[in-house]
Amino acid sequence: MLVDYANKELTQKYQLMAQTIIPRPIAWIVTQNEEGLLNIAPFSYFMGLSSEPATMMVSIGHKSDGSQKDTLKNLRETKKCTICMVDEAHLEAMHFSSKELGANESEATAFNIETKEVVEGFPPMVAGVPSAFFCEFYQEIELKSSKTIPLVVEIKAQFIDDKIISDKERITLDYAPLARVGKSYALLSKNITPPTIK
User: Fold this and answer.
1) Closest by CA position to 126, among listed 156, 87, 153
2) Dihedral angle over CA of 38, 42, 131, 172, nearest 10
3) Positive or negative: CA dihedral 118, 122, 128, 132
4) In this structure, are residues 153 and 58 in contact, taking their beta carbons and an 8 Å threshold?
5) pLDDT digits (tens, 9 = 90+) for 134-162
6) Which residues does residue 157 pair with via DSSP β-bridges, in sequence order?
7) Residue 26 belongs to what H/E stretch?
8) Residue 86: helix, strand or coil by DSSP?
9) Model pTM?
10) Neighbouring residues of 187: CB distance < 8 A, sequence distance ≥ 6
11) In what helix (H) or strand (E) does residue 30 lie, and over which residues does it extend?
């Protein structure tokens, strides 16, 4: 089967991409508005971009009414976010936090998500996650005729739970991050050692 994307609706293209570009890591993004209200939302169109500058990219859509999502609005205003990696222990809270709330409501309060301050000047991280990145807005990318906004953020600091560090000298990590696979979630359960290149 060859699928011509020119003949597919937006939802069909999304479903095809979401089921084949897998697994997708989940960015659980914490932002604050100018009044300090916390917003915590998951995004799975997310990836590392470059090590120099240390950057990541996340694509942010719009709310069902067409207005910009709070994450996008807050990032444009404050230029700061904290991206938390999600493990199985946080699956339920992360999934619930995808529910669309009013701009004056916080997922931290609505879904009892505990946060903690780690790096001054950045939004707090979700308490108990294995790792979190403290990022500054770097660049916004325009996709012509798209309502999805790709944003590049620069990593300024990273929190790593000591429990997932298997080698402190090399900073080798061992943990099971949660990923998005189609409409479901998954854990990476099997590591495969690459063959030796001679």
Assistant:
1) 87
2) -160
3) negative
4) yes
5) 999 999 999 888 889 999 999 999 999 99
6) 134
7) none
8) coil
9) 0.91
10) 88, 176, 177, 178, 179
11) strand 27-32
